[in-house]
Write a structure and sequence with these properties.
By secondary structure, this protein is α/β, with parallel strands linked by helices. The strands form 3 sheets. Strands 3, 4, 5, 6, 7, 8, 9 and 10 form an 8-stranded mixed sheet that branches. Strands 1-2 form a two-stranded antiparallel ribbon. Strands 11-12 form a two-stranded antiparallel ribbon.
Length: 350
Amino acid sequence: MAATAYAGSYVLDFEEPITAIESRLAELEVAGGDPVVDRQVRELRAERDRLLARIYASLTPWQTVKVSRHPARPQSTDFIEMICRDFVELHGDRQFADDRAIVTGLGRIRSHKVLVVAHRRGRTTSEKIACNFGCAHPEGYRKALSKMRLAEKFRLPIVTLIDTKGAYPGVGAEQRGQAESIARNLMEMSRLRTPIVCVVIGEGGSGGALGIGVGDRVAMLQHAWYSVISPEGCAAILWKQANEQTNSLAAASLRLTARDNLENALIDDVIGEPPGGAHRDPKAAALALQEWIVEQLNDLVRLKPETLVRRRFEKFRTIGMVRGGVEGATGGPVTAGPSGVIVDPSEASG
């Protein structure tokens, strides 16, 4: 990733014109108090905001991938801390180990008691190594499923936060059934009798993302990506090398941005980020995420368990449909995304 260090922080290559303005702003703010200087500060701030909005409104897919990987971008643990009250982490898969790449726990989001399941990437080098850089082992996905079954038992909604390049590809993970653990999660999540909402908050790579990505509502943060493979992996396969040019071509071809996924009906919503990305204002990003989750849960908790399961199946069954439709249980047409399905009063739990 092309980037330079600026003022002790990580600066993306396309952000350099913005940092030049911010550098000048920092100098002027130190000498604040003079009316002329104050006017210059206001003008520079307005110029910075206009430039920031223009740059981030026209990001290429590859630039979006870079934003999703920004070191200062809030991770799942940051969002949990900002939007969850009384969070209590639950550990272990009761079979092999406690995979730190997956964090599970009980908490409150506004008035909703929920189970949170999320990828954990780590901040420091030691944390990243302990968490396999957010790439989960089979025991991580088994831990997630075990805790989701617990949530179903106590009728708690499930919130998943997706942020991974993919499942861990090591020999040990394959020996312990990596593919089977993800496949089982796909099957079991499709029929859990409790509301599930999923959000891609950063990177949504391959089966590693899908392992906790089957839900009644699926959304992405504005500058996240979601695809079957990373741009570098795609470039290495198609062009036998991954560089700035081939990565950019691969990212554009994969249709991996939030807007692309929404247009292809692979997700239901895009959650807007603050100007300049979530890394510039994590609290505002957390508030937007919280509002979306609460809105979805307010809607989903009204439905009967059997209705949730049926509609979740219909939702994923219709993904990729080119023409025609699927008839619902009541005889009416069902759209690819649940946001467009009108709830029959008889399906409400009261």
